[in-house]
Amino acid sequence: xxxxxxxxxxxxxxxxxxxxxxxxxxxxxxxxxxxxxxxxxxxxxxxxxxxxxxxxxxxxxxxxxxxxxxxxxxxxxxxxxxxxxxxxxxxxxxxxxxxxxxxxxxxxxxxxxxxxxxxxxxxxxxxxxxxxxxxxxxxxxxxxxxxxxxxxxxxxxxxxxxxxxxxxxxxxxxxxxxxxxxxxxxxxxxxxxxxxxxxxxxxxxxxxxxxxxxxxxxxxxxxxxxxxxxxxxxxxxxxxxxxxxxxxxxxxxxxxxxxxxxxxxxxxxxxxxxxxxxxxxxxxxxxxxxxxxxxxxxxxxxxxxxxxxxxxxxxxxxxxxxxxxxxxxxxxxxxxxxxxxxxxxxxxxxxxxxxxxxxxxxxxxxxxxxxxxxxxxxxxxxxxxxxxxxxxxxxxxxxxxxxxxxxxxxxxxxxxxxxxxxxxxxxxxxxxxxxxxxxxxxxxxxxxxxxxxxxxxxxxxxxxxxxxxxxxxxxxxxxxxxxxxxxxxxxxxxxxxxxxxxxxxxxxxxxxxxxxxxxxxxxxxxxxxxxxxxxxxxxxxxxxxxxxxxxxxxxxxxxxxxxxxxxxxxxxxxxxxxxxxxxxxxxxxxxxxxxxxxxxxxxxxxxxxxxxxxxxxxxxxxxxxxxxxxxxxxxxxxxxxxxxxxxxx
Length: 649
Prior knowledge:
The protein is α/β, with parallel strands linked by helices. It contains nine helices and 44 strands. The strands form six sheets. The chain has a 28-stranded parallel β-sheet that branches. It has a five-stranded mixed β-sheet with strand order 1-8-7-4-5, with no helix packed on it. It has a four-stranded parallel β-sheet with strand order 13-20-23-26. Helix 2 packs parallel to helix 4, helix 3 runs antiparallel to helix 4 and helix 3 runs parallel beside helix 6. It is elongated and about 100 Å long.
């Protein structure tokens, strides 16, 4: 037998349902010596192997695998020859892509083995200023980076981005992401301003993935109709350490997926994980589970700061670490007013699920994806540390109930960078539980940095509380744009949150606001919860300081420009028995809309609707007003009551 006869012989075996010539055909093909062959002969040989493997029964695995390995080896030889002799254009016309596609389909090869990563340096323009380029996150196939100091959410000009000398299209944002990279590869990233006046360069390497598990190979259809939950969950649970679960383009309907540690999850462009909205079949987390000896409890379900039954998240992780979820795809909660948003305050079986929920987890990173139509809070990390949220888009209708964008609760060490929010409640709400959880665990949310983000159409751009009984410390929000939100900074607290409900070192700086109804609101009389409108919560008379009294320490607002304000420039009110310790407003400018809306600046008893109001401050120990410019208000620019020390600059 000669090798040219092998495809016909194998096809005859297939059509006759025979296996008696498998050994003869395999031995003939493996006997071929390619060392002296030219590239044309190798391509012809690879096509012969392809035709044989197409008809070969893989259950005769030893023989099948030996030919599959020879196929891979041959393609590598062809690729090596083409690189050495500059035959790349010839390969395209010789059916190279078809050979690669066959190998991918049969799982012999990965296309990335045959994509050379050549670095061509970009010439630095003469007399160019320096751009600081900071790498924020890498995955096996993407990178997120920041052009430091070049704008807030969007850049202050157009910047060209080159990857190994090839111009790469990126959004005109300060925080940018590039996808489609090779695993474990070093890249040179260069940024040049369009007029060549600035230049920056940085080297980075993508992370190494061990294996790729395509959910289609586990039975997922992505047809937008089938329930793909079990198939995708099978891929996740089967994924080895440092492996990647790949979700290719398609619509995958699920009833909740659970993450495991040390994996990458990539949503390709065009991939949509879409929740099945019917409650039946969704997992339920009990609020409290008692230990067998009755001495401790396991708090799992949570709703607005208390341990209560809730549906498990659409994407959920309990006690996981080192998880990266990234890509250009979407996670769609599929919520509307006929399902999850119907009667939103009523517990139906359990409280509504979050779109993304992790508990007792660490080193969890989300990058690039779009999250939308969440049943309730969109992203809710709970008692988790070392988290990163980069270049995300969060989209919920403006009238959707309780669809906060990102609510870290009792979490530490968080970076939120380049995220765009447009939704129906608070864009970011930092929390730490109501008094039961706050007193039991005494765990603050702390060390959080929010930068280069866009907040639109929410109730509050960045909110603290009202569930903050464990405290919030070291929160910095900088270089952000707030557009068309009811409030900019919004602090919601009240008597009854407890002595651990301490807010300290809350910093907002270099913020641009436009059409924010009231840019600064600090409300110590927020009328939440069933007792929220009682005299204990709402009275402006001092009460005794006790274990239920919260405290606000240092607040600092600097370099903030708020245009087209409607209701009030600032409404800041501490408790008379526990005054805000220090308030600093430095280089703050507020102007008003030509046709201002009228509304309440803070949600508490005794606060009337108004418009064009200036700065109202009450119950603060030390206030610094340094270059605070209020332009266009009616009445007094500053109303200051019960302040011990007032410093003006």
